[in-house]
Amino acid sequence: MVDTAYLNFLENILTDNRKEKFLKVLENRTKHFTIVVEDIFQMHNTSAVMRSCEVFGIQELNVIEQRYGKRIDKEIAMGAQKWVDINAFDSITNCVDTLKDKGYQIIATTPHEGDCLMDDFDISKPSALFFGTERDGLSEEIMNRADGFLKIPMVGFTESLNISVSAAILIQNLTNRLRNSNIDWHLSKDEILEKRLDWAKKSIKDIKRIEERYFLDNPKLVL
User: Which end of the chain, N or C, is surrounded by fewer C-beta atoms within 10 Å?
Assistant: First the structure.
């Protein structure tokens, strides 16, 4: 539960333009789709996928890191790490189970024949879109547990795209279709309040000192 008094206190520090920008961006944020990247060896690709999530309004990026343990490339992410929620998992099983428990269907992105083309994909169901390694694709466990398979139509000799390019194409296509549909894809009121608070804190310099002073003056309140 968001402390609205604390939220108002922080937002009073921000400019009106900043607050209006937050609201405008949050109007287009969604958790109807979520993105998952599995053991991406070249971490700049994960950073680029994060940037695509932010640009096209996907609020959550899930990262499965069983083998490599690298960090987000902040230069490529271009600040997107401040605005997108990153959920880290140390195993495929944990990630898949968590997303299924949240009500997502598991969709594996592959270039194989017989998979659903992105323009034909049913966007009505909350879906977690999985992207695999540059070299090996998705793991056998994810392929076995997938509820469906999705691919980008290609007409050239090359059979696959770089993961960051694939993710950008699919995210743009599916989110655009989502916004032009009658599906209730928006964040809930509580989720919007949570992100307003989170983003306000990330936008204020010396936030720790300001928090300490605020809660010193309001001892009955807690974060």
Answer: N
Output phi, psi for 88, to 5 deg: -100, 135
Please provide the average confidence, as pLDDT, over all residues in the chain. Answer: 87
Residue 89, classed as helix, strand or coil, is strand
Tokens representing residue 88 in the block: 């880290």
Q: In this predicted structure, what is the pLDDT of residue 144?
A: 94
Q: Which of 82, 87, 42, 80 is nearest to 64 (CA)?
A: 87
Going through the chain in order, the beta strands assigned E by DSSP cover: 33-38, 60-64, 85-89, 105-109, 116-117, 127-131, 148-151
CA distance 107 to 128: 6
Residues 6+ apart with CB under 8 A from 83: 25, 54, 199
Q: How far apart are CA 162 and CA 35, in angstroms?
A: 16
Q: How many residues are recorded in the chain?
A: 223
Within 10 A of 196 (CB to CB), how many other CB atoms are there?
21
Nearest CA to 116 among 157, 156, 159, 152? 152
Please tell me the distance from the alpha carbon of residue 89 to that of residue 96, in angstroms, as a whole number: 10
Q: What is the mean pLDDT of residues 118-127?
A: 96
Q: Tell me: the pLDDT tens digits for 78-95? A: 466 789 999 989 899 999
Report the C-alpha gap between 128 and 173 in whole angstroms: 15
Greater confidence, 36 or 139? 36
Q: What do you get for the CA distance between the two ends of the chain, in Å?
A: 10
